[in-house]
Amino acid sequence: MAGxxxxxxxxxxxFGREWAIAALDRGxxxxxxxxxxxxxxxxxxxxxxxxxxxxxxxxxxxxxTAAVAQANEHFGRLDIVINNAGYGHFGFVEEVTEKExxxxxxxxxxxxxxxxxxxxxxxxEQGSGHIIQVSSIGGISAFxxxxxxxxxxxxxxxxTQSLAQEVADFGINxxxxxPGGFSTDWSGSSSVHSEENPAYADFRKKVQAARQQRLGxxxxxxxxxxxxxxxxxxxxxxxxxFFGDGPLGIATADYASRIALWEEWNDVSxxxxxAAD
Length: 277
Fold this sequence. Notes:
The protein has helices at residues 14-25, 41-47, 61-75, 98-126, 147-167, 201-215, 224-233, 247-264, 266-273, and strands spanning 5-8, 29-34, 51-55, 80-83, 89-90, 129-134, 172-179, 192-193, 240-243. By secondary structure, it is an alpha/beta fold. The chain has a single domain (5-247), classed as NAD(P)-binding Rossmann-like Domain (Rossmann fold), CATH 3.40.50.720. Helix 3 (61-75) packs parallel to helix 4 and helix 4 packs parallel to helix 5 (147-167). The N and C termini lie far apart (59 Å).
């Protein structure tokens, strides 16, 4: 199907920007959102009316609903909705303030929920559509220092897996894109850092060293353009897909460890069931 209409949050940079370019370069149309639409001026200059720039803070439910409705009215349909807006929060669990924790959830979790809820009635009426949630390898595994980020992505994964089952009969596809380490601004200027507790100083050094070793060479976001097009054009898109060559190894080791631990403690698990009457 040519001439698809995309709605992408967080298109000022990173994956959102690259995927908007991928869509526009092949003749699709894009409703591109950002907190400040000045960051979208280059897209508008190059692609003209194929781009609808929208100012949006995804934590504002009413604004999210209005933006989706505006995009649908402007283009006449919505084929692909990508919830890409989000940021990384760095801080050990003890260090994270209530304000920081709620802010992380409001953007990474609730922002995606509000956009998804706004798009679903439109897609149900069409009898088609594809919702893509940008998760992370951090949506299925977890490491120190980014606990609240993991919490937001694990929650996103949970409601999205339920959503995929709920809307399949309406002709709506749902996909979780789970990137590994890429050269985006996720851990740069867009990230938030909690005030450091000196009690964790030694452990922090170990965590940061392990993180550098684990990430290796970051991926190039530009290379994901062709990958996202393959996902949205698939007859049967995946519920989950990793982007990058590192996540599969992490996931395989993590899940093998979980199964081994569950099996080790299975006698106690069965004991907890109690004897049959």
